[in-house]
Amino acid sequence: MIRKMAEAEINLDEIESLTRVYGAINKLRGDQIRHELEKRGMRAIGNKQVISRQLKAYFKKKHAHQHEQPRTPRRDCDIIIVIDVEATCDTGEDTFPHEIIELPAVAIERSSGDVLGEFQTHVRPTLNPKLSEYCTELTGIVQADVAEAPLFPDALQSLLAFVDQIKAQWLAQQKPGTPVPRVHYASDGPWDYRDFLQFQCRISDIDYPKEWRAWIDVRRLFYAHYKLYFNKEHRRSFSSGVACMLDGVGMKFEGREHSGIDDTRNIARLVTRLIEDEAPMKTNTDVQQGPCRLRALEPAHCALARLQLSTYMPS
User: Fold this and answer.
1) CB neighbours (10 Å) of residue 93?
2) Does the annotation count 86 as an active-site position?
């Protein structure tokens, strides 16, 4: 009874120091944090680490307003492009040369978390033009989807044209004099850019886009922002992918897992949630962090790819 009375006396709104507010929030139980959020009309979904970050973000904004310190919007970026590719694959093939067969993207406005547009195209593979049954079962992509699809160089140009269109549309809605929008790319982990896209550029004999040299690793940002760690038993499930991260913030995966566009949309939902919860949208991974795990395949496959690509290119 004495403990409950002491807890009831805590009024977070009356604490002037932001540091002390954070300290008081750290001492609250999960149900108390949920109560504090709900009485302020905020959602209270997720584990204790997630909802604690939400409550702290609320008081951070309130403190800045009360002390006449309106925050200048952080210009880490203006637009975030989320990508999650699908590639050819087969069972039991550690050295299989994965080629991009679906290239999707979702554009998000940094300041609001709103979706600005979507892009999706299938891509025709050349090293292994016939999809394996395993690949179709995993991704839902059938042979007809890729048979007449563009080759990767053309698909890449279409993606970059989409990004340019999004930038132009965003800039047209801003005040005169607004600088060209800064774009950050994002994905779940390092694999899409470091491994699959870098490898695809090499076998297609085209330059790797400089825009992809660094990106936002959403999984790394998610764990760091919500202070989730792999070394504790009850948090290990969060290392399992997009669906588990969504579950951690009270959301469910929408669509089919391993569909490129559905995976991308769900990662974009996580990005929006991180924006709402005041996560920094800075690049945190680059192509130098860890070796490209497909690089050992390059010499033979690059030569073969160039030979096969020549049969598709006009003379």
Assistant:
1) 12
2) yes
Tokens 């598709």, located at residue: 312
Distance, CA of 288 to chain centre: 19
Is residue 248 within 8 Å of 46, Cβ to Cβ? Answer: yes
Q: Specify the pLDDT at position 57.
A: 81
Query: Which residue among the candidates 118, 211, 225, 258 is catalytic per the annotation?
Result: 258
pLDDT digits (tens, 9 = 90+) for 257-299: 999 999 999 999 999 999 998 899 999 999 887 666 555 555 5
* 137 included as an active-site residue: no
Alpha-carbon distance of 226 to 237, in angstroms, equals 14
Q: Of the listed 36, 86, 102, 109, which one is catalytic?
A: 86
Cα 290 from chain centre: 19
Cβ(79)–Cβ(167) under 8 Å?
A: yes
Residue 180's alpha-carbon distances to 119, 166, 169, 200, 224, in angstroms, are: 21, 11, 11, 29, 30
Q: What percent of the chain has pLDDT over 90?
A: 55
| Residue 264, number of CB atoms within 10 A of its CB | 30
Residue 69, pLDDT score: 52
pLDDT tens per residue, range 55-71: 888 888 777 766 655 55
- What's the confidence (pLDDT) of residue 75? 67
Residue entry with tokens 């792999």: 230
- The token pair at 149 is 């699809």
Is the per-residue pLDDT at 256 higher than 90? yes
